[in-house]
Amino acid sequence: FSKVEFNFEPEVVITNIWPSMGPAFSGGTIVTVKGSGFRETTKLRCRFGNNAIVPARFIDTATVVCRAPPSRPGSVSFSVSNNLMDFSKSQFKYLYYNDVSVSWIRPDRSLITGQRPVFVRGTNFMNSTGLKCRFGTSEVRGIFLKKTLVVCQVPSRVIGFGINATRLQTVNVDISNNGLDFSASHVKFEY
């Protein structure tokens, strides 16, 4: 008999992925995977579809994270492996959507107190629970009207006391379909 040893490990099981969608052409979404059976190994990988296999980062035996590679728009299967060979058999899907862009915002200015609705025109907006608008670094919920139009409530921009509190500021306005990956359109809004 040979002296070759085999190690049998528990099957990798996925119970959740977040977000379950991200931009197709730019890729780069950091996906958090919850489940069981994950091991800290150099062969830990996530698979998007049949061919796109990317490194995963071990957080603990119930959590790993990985970065979605660029792809064509559409839904693909999602799985994880500890050894580059045996991938999980979950039925989870990851949706690649067309990248979002912003072309204009109306009105394009507000008092520093904010709290007024603005219309954001662009492309590839989705009616999702993760739809967000970002004004500089402040994020607010977006309301989907159609694939090219979203309404957002301008957040307050009070930045202190005295003369600095009333200083004019210009910020970028961007949109996210998944609450994580925002457009980079450089459309400006003034307080």
Tell me the structural class.
mainly beta
Whole-angstrom Rg:
21 Å
Q: What general outline do the C-alpha atoms trace? A: elongated
Low-confidence stretches: none
Instruction: Please tell me the overall pLDDT.
Output: 93
Short description:
By secondary structure, this protein is mostly beta strands.
Report on the structure:
The protein is mostly beta strands. It is 0% helix and 47% strand. The chain has strands spanning 13-18, 21-23, 30-36, 45-48, 52-60, 63-67, 74-81, 93-97, 101-106, 117-123, 132-135, 138-146, 149-153, 170-176, 187-190. The strands form two sheets. Strands 1-3-6-5-4-7-8-2 form an eight-stranded mixed β-sheet, with no helix packed on it. It has a seven-stranded antiparallel β-sheet with strand order 9-10-13-12-11-14-15, with no helix packed on it. Strand 5 and strand 6 form a beta hairpin. The chain is elongated. It starts with 12 loop residues before the first strand and ends with a strand.
Keywords for this entry:
single chain, 191 residues, mainly beta, eight-stranded mixed β-sheet, seven-stranded antiparallel β-sheet
List the helices and strands and how they pair.
Elements lengths: L12 E6 L2 E3 L6 E7 L8 E4 L3 E9 L2 E5 L6 E8 L11 E5 L3 E6 L10 E7 L8 E4 L2 E9 L2 E5 L16 E7 L10 E4 L1
Parallel strand pairs: 2-8
Antiparallel strand pairs: 1-3, 3-6, 4-5, 4-7, 5-6, 7-8, 9-10, 10-13, 11-12, 11-14, 12-13, 14-15
